[in-house]
Amino acid sequence: MKEETVVQVQSELDVVESEIRKLEYHLVGLDSEKRKTKRSLEELKNRKEELKSYL
Question: According to the model, what pLDDT value does residue 7 have?
């Protein structure tokens, strides 16, 4: 393989690896947000039931 082709392929490989890391990090953040949202939703549902019990 020509030297310039090797350099080009290595450069593209670096970009792809960087994108993979970025997307994996993003997924971790989404999982965290999903957990927080579920917790908040559960708290609101519990509060709703508590308020209804006062009626």
Answer: 95
pLDDT per residue as tens digits for the range 15-40: 999 999 999 999 999 999 999 999 99
**Could you list the residue range(s) of the whole structural domain that residue 43 is in?**
28-55
The structure tokens listed for 10 are 């290595």
Say whether 1 sits in a helix, a strand or coil.
Answer: coil
User: What's the DSSP call for residue 54?
Assistant: T
Domain contains 34:
yes
* 42, 45, 43, 25: CA torsion to nearest 10: 40
In this structure, is residue 42 part of a structural domain? yes
Residue type, 24: E
